[in-house]
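>> received
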Amino acid sequence: MFSMEYRLGASRVDEHGLLRCSGMVDLMQDCSGFQLDTEQELNAYFAEHGLGMYLASRQVDIHRMPAYGEQLTLKTWIFACNRFYGRRNTLILDQKGELCAASWCTGVFVELATARGTRVPQSLLDQVRLEPAFEMPYLPHKLTPPEASAPWEQLAVRTVDRSMIDRYHHVNNARYFDLGEEALPADYAFDRVRISYKTPAKHGEQICPRRLVTEEGCWVVLCDNKGSTYAQLFYDCL
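>> returned
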């Protein structure tokens, strides 16, 4: 298990002084990235063969949004891994050790030059430390939005700017949470969000959000201007 401490500052809180959902994901991916940095053999193999890991899905269960100034502890570990993908838990705890948020996600191994999935040697994965999965609901990582015949609402088109781009030269996974929240109805309440990533969006491309509110929750689908999907999000309650 890898852990890091963080005092919640102004850069990641919203207008109410609470941690933004995207800020929560920023912290989770930072913690996860630092944990991966400790896997020296895996990183050396990635660097030699031009490989990386793309996030395929994430579920975030929010028990309480921390407020500005709170001291937080993040913990992360890998609980499953095969030659194609890995799965991890990441937790955010407050100063009392009480759970603020729990997440599980799937990352796939890819060739960075082509963005295509690839396999890594089992002998390499045998060196990766696995720990038991955190006890939480594990909902399907594949999302299936209602059919297009449903009354979807088309929202304002966004153009990908440079502030959204990460070191893999496409939109950072946490920025889709920004785009998703912007697409929600005003003051829409949720404490669970699930996302499925499809095709990475790149600088200058257009993102066309559409929204559907149902009794179960709110769907947000982020597409290009031809209808191909970048990401799908579903917001509901625990």
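>> The helical segments are 21-37, 40-49, 122-125, 173-183.
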